[in-house]
Design a protein that fits this description.
Low-confidence stretches: none
Strand content: 15-25%
Radius of gyration: 17 Å
CATH class: Alpha Beta
CATH architecture: 3-Layer(aba) Sandwich
CATH topology: Rossmann fold
Number of strands: 10
Mean pLDDT: 96
Strand order of the largest sheet: 1-10-9-6-2-3-5
Distance between the termini: 13 Å
Structural class: alpha/beta
Number of helices: 7
Length: 241
């Protein structure tokens, strides 16, 4: 594992953007696994600026997103498709057909999960997967439990996750209780993983993930077993390491 301890959120975002930019420069047709939430927003902003300045070219890049809420349309302001369009895709020269997000409105959710795993396989797998980490140690929507979910699946959101995401909705009751999420095996098959963490509230989860045992009760702990993990965090989030 390679660890970058940055002074603050802005420096963390720049470091993450530099790592993704290097991946694109080295392999212009990279398959990038992307994440949503507040943590990667600054990184996406930096990537947009790099593209605007002509430093990186997204025209050959393909993307697959980690997850999507069940029941939200792509046009819903809190859907992860909308998030990606607003924060990245609409501002860079990526081909619309090259961006992929699970379909949270699929009539057959189990079938959609299988389709999404086949899609990732057809693209040749993920070259670099971006992850954030929840306060309970979740990655994607792989919540603490008795085992590691393997493939893309329908995930029931933990109450702590619902509470953490409620700030994005008008009320807690509006937060979906399920999501489609890549499983741990799907994530683990990425050639490299970029885990980004920010804020003092993540320090305990980071310490548990990388100083504790590998256990599904702390899903991110499985990353201890992956040879290609890059951990980028601000000093607050990494204070327990």
């Amino acid at each position: 594992m390679r660890i970058y301890r940055e002074t603050d959120y802005r420096a963390m975002s720049r470091r993450g953007a530099d790592i993704l930019a290097a991946q694109i420069l080295l392999r212009p047709e990279s398959v990038l696994g992307l994440a949503t939430g507040s943590t990667p927003v600054g990184m996406y902003r930096e990537l947009v600026e790099k593209n605007r300045r002509g430093e990186i070219d997204f025209s050959g890049v393909r993307t697959v997103n980690l997850d999507e809420y069940v029941g939200l349309s792509p046009e819903h302001e809190q859907s992860y498709r909308y998030f990606m369009q607003r924060n990245l895709f609409d501002h860079v020269n990526i081909r619309p057909g090259a961006t992929h997000v699970p379909d949270g409105l699929a009539e057959d959710l189990a079938g959609e999960c299988r389709r999404y795993d086949r899609l990732i396989e057809s693209l040749g797998g993920v070259d670099l997967q971006v992850l954030g980490m929840g306060r309970n140690g979740h990655i994607g929507f792989n919540e603490p439990g008795e085992d590691f979910p393997l493939g893309t699946h329908v995930a029931d959101l933990a109450e702590s996750t619902v509470s953490a995401n409620a700030r994005f909705f008008d009320s807690r009751d509006q937060v979906p209780r399920q999501a489609l999420s890549m499983g741990v095996r799907t994530i683990f098959q990425a050639r490299r993983i970029l885990l980004m963490v920010s804020g003092r509230e993540k320090a305990d989860a980071v310490a548990a993930a990388f100083h504790g045992p590998v256990t599904p009760k702390v899903p991110a702990s499985v990353l201890q077993l992956h040879a290609g993990v890059i951990l980028v965090g601000d000093s607050d989030a990494l204070s327990g390491l």
